[in-house]
Structure formats: structure tokens, C-alpha cells
Amino acid sequence: MGAVVAAVGDAVTQPVFAVLLAGLLASALVRRRVTALHGYAFGVLAAHAVAGHFGWFSRYELYAYAAVLPVVEYLARRPLTALFAAHDGWRWAAAGAIVTMAVSAGYVGTTVRTSAGAANIYTQQAQMARFVSDHWRRPVAVNDLGLVADRGGQYVLDLWGLASQEARRARAADDGVGWMQRLTDEHGVELAMICDDPWFPEVPSSWTRVAVLSMDLPRVTSASRQVSFFATSARAAAELRPALRDFASTLPAHAALCFPAGATP
């Protein structure tokens, strides 16, 4: 129950969520009844408040706003029409525009940063996917699921656990890193591409870091500026090095592949 209360408390601090909720409450109070449309919109907001996320480059809440905003506008159509039709309607229209800009300022920022975020994805995730599809052509493991799964054309073992219940349970058990070797062995995975970040600090000591893909762009949407390419066996490392050297010469601007000689995790 505490988690639910905390989630709802976080939701009502989100400006757009708060405005939509206030609009629904005001409409119900003015009408002195709750219609089916009210119930639908309240249900969407409540479900997202309890089970959804906010932020994360504004990706996860927009569906709820898109579902609820037209309902709020429809329910408020008569008082809004009356306000805007009055002799000082322009004042209300101006006030509405100011409020809209204020509560959506965060989304304007996200929109401005979208091109930089897309450049992150192209420079890192798209190149990882291209290596898997054009050079490696075998199963692969990652800890940041993305374009590798969409465009790689191979089986992808998600070590973070979003797409693998086995990995999610094993990581949640916090029982060392042996589970990674077990799962890669079971799924025939000999390459693991790991975003370098404190939230995923360790890999099995038997793995070999063969290369590191880096980007020199400001980090906007990528989990990290660096991705380490690990071979899960000595044989795989011998096969991975020449494939990566061929791949390195095809990288776009702002991406580079370095080979730390003899580097291990």
C-alpha cells in the first residue's frame, strides 16, 4: 500500500497530470455527477499513476495524456466556449495559452533535445545492431535492450531482464555473476555488449573485453557513452577481434572502436 501511495503522490506532482486531474474533478463537480467519460479518464490516470512511469525522456506517460486530454476538452467544451465567446475572452485564451506552456515546458525541452537523442541512438545502438546483423550474425547478449533486438536479426539475451525472465530473476537474486555465464552458455551466446555504467558493474571473470565502442557526443538517450564488447570464451575472442577490426573502419563520425590489449573485465 505504501508503494501505491508513493506512486500516486509522485503522479500528482507532474504538471500535466495534475492539470488533467483537476479538469476532470472540476467537470464532475460542476455537473454534479460522474459520467462514463469521467470514469474512463479517471481510470486511465489512476492506472498510470499506480503502474506506469514518468520521465525517461517523456516516453511513458504521453499515451495516457493523449487518451485523457480529448475527454477533458469535450467535457469542458461548454464553459470554455462561453469563456472564449465573452467580450474579454481573449484574456482567458491568453491565460490558457500561458498555463499550457507552463505545464508542458518539460515536453518542449524533450522535443528540443530529440535530435541529439536520435544522434545518440544512431551513433551507438544502431552501430551495435549493424555489427550483429552484418558482421557477427550470431546470438548476442546485451544489458540495454534497444535497436540490437529490433534490427540485429539474431537472438538477443537481455541480461537486464526486461525481455528475459530468467535474467530478471537471477539479477534480482543478487547471487554473483555466475548466472550470466550459465545463461550465455545455455543460449549459445558468445558475444555480450555491455553498456559501461555503475548500475551493471560486473561480468564473469572468464569473459574477455575485446573492444570498447565510444561516442563523443553529449549523452542524452544512451545509457552510457561506452559499450564494451565481451567474448564469453577464448575461442570467441579470437573470432571477435577480426570481425570488430573490419567493423571499426565503417563507423560513422562521433563513434570509435578501441582495442584495449589484453583487457579483461
Describe the overall structure.
The longest helix has 19 residues, at 105-123. The protein has helices at residues 2-11, 15-31, 36-51, 62-75, 77-85, 89-103, 105-123, 125-136, 147-151, 165-173, 178-186, 234-248, and strands spanning 140-142, 156-158, 191-195, 208-215, 226-231, 255-258. Helix 9 (147-151) links the parallel strand 1 (140-142) and strand 2. The protein has 12 helices and 6 strands. The radius of gyration is 25 Å and the shape is elongated. It has a 6-stranded mixed beta sheet, with helices on one face. It has 2 domains: 2-103, no CATH class; 118-258, no CATH class. It is α/β, with parallel strands linked by helices and 265 residues long. The two termini are 41 Å apart.
The helix-and-strand class reads alpha/beta
Terminal-residue CA separation: 41 Å
Helix content: 55-70%
Order of helices and strands: HHHHHHHHEHEHHEEEHE
Radius of gyration from CA coordinates: 25 Å
The fraction of residues assigned to DSSP E strands is 5-15%
Shape: elongated
Residue-averaged pLDDT, rounded? 90
Whole-number total of structural domains? 2
Count up the helices: 12
State the strand order across the main sheet. 2-1-3-5-4-6
Total count of strands: 6
Instruction: List low-confidence stretches.
Output: none
Short description:
The chain is α/β, with parallel strands linked by helices. It is 57% helix and 11% strand. It folds into two domains: 2-103, no CATH class; 118-258, no CATH class.
